[in-house]
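retry 2 of 3: previous attempt timed out while embedding flavin-adenine dinucleotide. Reduced batch size to 1 and resubmitted. Inputs unchanged:
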Amino acid sequence: MPNIVVLVKQVPDTYSERKLSDGDKTLDRDSADAVLDEINERAVEEALLIKEASEGEVTVLSVGPDRATEAIRKALSMGADKAIHVSDAALHGADVIQTAKVLAAAIGKVDGVDLVIAGNESTDGVAGAVPAILAELLGYPQLTHARKVTVEGSAIKVERETSDGITHLEANLPAVVSVGEKINEPRYPSFKGIMAAKKKPVETLTVADLGLSADEVGLASAWTQVLEASPKPPRQAGQKVADEGDGGVKVAEYLVSQKLI
Amino acid sequence: MAEVLVLVDHVDGEAKKSTFELLTAARRLGEPAAVVVGAPGAAGKLKESLASYGAAKVYVAESDEAAGYLVTPKVDVLEKLVGSASPAAVLLTASADGKEIGGRLAVRLGSGFLVDVVDVEAQGDEVVATHSIFGGDFVVKAKSTKGTPVVTVRAGSIEPEQADGAAAEESVEVPAVDAAKSAKITGSEPVTGGDRPELTEASVVVSGGRGVGSAEQFEVVEKLADALGAAVGASRAAVDSGYYPAQFQVGQTGKTVSPQLYIALGISGAIQHRAGMQTSKTIVAVNKDEEAPIFEIADFGVVGDLFKVAPQLTEEVGKRKG
Ligand SMILES: Cc1cc2nc3c(=O)[nH]c(=O)nc-3n(C[C@H](O)[C@H](O)[C@H](O)COP(=O)(O)OP(=O)(O)OC[C@H]3O[C@@H](n4cnc5c(N)ncnc54)[C@H](O)[C@@H]3O)c2cc1C
Ligand SMILES: Nc1ncnc2c1ncn2[C@@H]1O[C@H](COP(=O)(O)O)[C@@H](O)[C@H]1O
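retry 2 succeeded.
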């Protein structure tokens, strides 16, 4: 009966323009539409599949501003049981390591965690490191970039897929898993699920509730500091020609003129 | 001069090109010291190539356990070396493994963690890193404010330059693995790259999209790639349709590439695809839809059928090579 915590993050929709705020060079979260990161839908799906195979409970955990509740509701409407939302103005500008510390503290609030499931990489920060850092902080084995997860009793097996190939991993619970894009197809929330989600418990916590101090976690105390940020001038369109039977020759001539062949 | 630790990314006794990029970057910050963690015998064949990219020292940490567990043995070895060598920085490739090793190391050391950087420079005693974020829309410079900076560098962003290094060998004992906190590797199936260059390392990339139409027809893309000595890439729509394997996906959820030349065949140029390729030096696109957004960023665009244009281009390239 695994007790599962799924980490979900709300990110700016990749279809909208993403910017940094002029003032403190943090992500300008208001300029773009926000959505539950696609990879996290797969993380939720995997948690639900494991739960359905052997019962258990799925808790959604998100660290982010107030409107991250939308992402949390989506995960609940897919079928997760309850949620924890850590929201605190002090977290503005937190870096990967600080975020992982807050997540670890919040996971500590859940009794008897067997499995933490995250996405392998978020689309806004693309750190691809939070799950590993969490494993470090929690002292759990990391089975990351999973394309297949099997839980049998207290043993867990994962097929890890990266650009280096496939690695077969084994460990004992409790463990941290991160999922890759190929793991599953996330379900759509049903109407019933959406209605039920409105009544599911969402516990909202501050940094102080987690026993962390505000000056440990925010922008001012970040372990890295942004010195300057500038938008890159957009690429300009070059020449465009219609193929009149000599398109390939034209490209070849262009490449020669650019000394590329 | 302080040492700069470089974690060597190696397969079958060969260092990846990204390791040479790291050694090149390390020379700007101090004295490069390559760190090889692996099974017994792993370092032997690597030494010569590490020396030729300026490694002054090669730390060799070999044991069966080092190769038998995921990520943690490398973190343990690097932590130990940071303690004994007090380096100016630790550099790793921003691969799946490198990002995870770097993150764990940074939190263990209490160090700032600079992620997926495209350039590094020394400013006085400080390491300043350049990031290219949101698919190249923004350029950001940042530094670490605590401890030994741990930096992951995006493959292909620094031009490797050869230099003579002594590659003086020093062996390091691999700390015992705590099996309860580590994942055991019970088997692996490395990707066999074939004869084409690796996607993130190639100076020319030819990619196909949904417009290619089928797995069989991807041959048109491969033939052009082979004529140019290029790597083959694919859009997510092409991957999702089963035309080409996922490890070749270019874009936000695939690989980020920045080659000298990127040729897009039958790709519309959705924002998520552009995020992975728009920092390429030169972009050529072939698409039959003259409104396709890929043309907004292409240096040279052909409105036409890729099945006519690409084979003709392949032939032209062949002719010029004689
Ligand atoms: C969160 C998220 C992440 C994503 N990540 C990625 C990613 O990493 N990489 C990625 O690529 N996409 C990604 N996408 C998907 C992206 O939005 C697009 O759907 C995808 O890039 C489209 O691929 P395509 O251009 O091959 O297909 P289409 O958009 O279907 O375009 C096919 C093109 O081929 C042209 N064509 C057809 N036949 C021919 C012919 N015979 N000759 C010439 N041209 C022809 C058509 O005119 C058309 O422009 C992501 C989407 C989301 C939401
Ligand atoms: N603020 C956050 N709240 C909840 N989960 C997060 C947060 N940041 C990262 N994660 C989890 O960690 C994964 C990898 O993120 P990253 O390391 O930032 O690329 C995400 O897919 C999430 O599952």
